[in-house]
Amino acid sequence: MEKIGFYIAKGLRAVLQRPAIRSSVIDKHSRVCSGSQLSRVEMDRYSYIGHDCFLNNVKIGSFCSIADNCKIGGATHQIGYVSTSPVFVSGKNIMGKNFAEHADNETAQTIIESDVWMGMGCHIKEGVHIHTGAIIGMGSVVTKDIPPYEIWGGVPAKLIRKRFSDEVTEMLLESAWWNWPEEKIKEYSDCFDDPMVFLQQLKTEDN
Question: Three-class SS string for 35-91?
Fold first, then answer.
């Protein structure tokens, strides 16, 4: 009965707390879980966004894994004006009121390349560029760009270690396997558990 109750509750959540998606393009093979809010988001194939996430003006590559409760991107406020309140700048705001139409800041797009894994509860500052293969630890606050195949974590997030040697990283980036057609990915998928075997097999075929 406990198992049945779990699936009933999960199903009800999916129905009652559907994701709110506006002005976004989500690949048909990608998924957005319940309770998440997306505005101006582009997401390529086989990526997913967990439950109760918030994303604004974000571009996401393929094969990304974004866990629950992540906040990515967002709006900025004018800090040089008399007030930082949005009621003094142009455009719609939560109050539905504009005392003036001063110029507002443009929100920089946040870029998340392919095969990025982001742990639960991460906060990613708008305009940050997270490169392919990066891993971000649970609860991290990211305020800087993250290079490819590095593991970052903390508040603010810092480099913990590199996933692979510089040589392996370079070869994985050169392979650009995330852009391959599905048939080729399937062909090589048996060796995805070992980067060296994968790269050796790729090198053998190229020769």
Answer: CCEEEEEEECCCCEECCCCEEEEEEECCCCEECCCCEEECCCCCCCCCCCCHHHECC
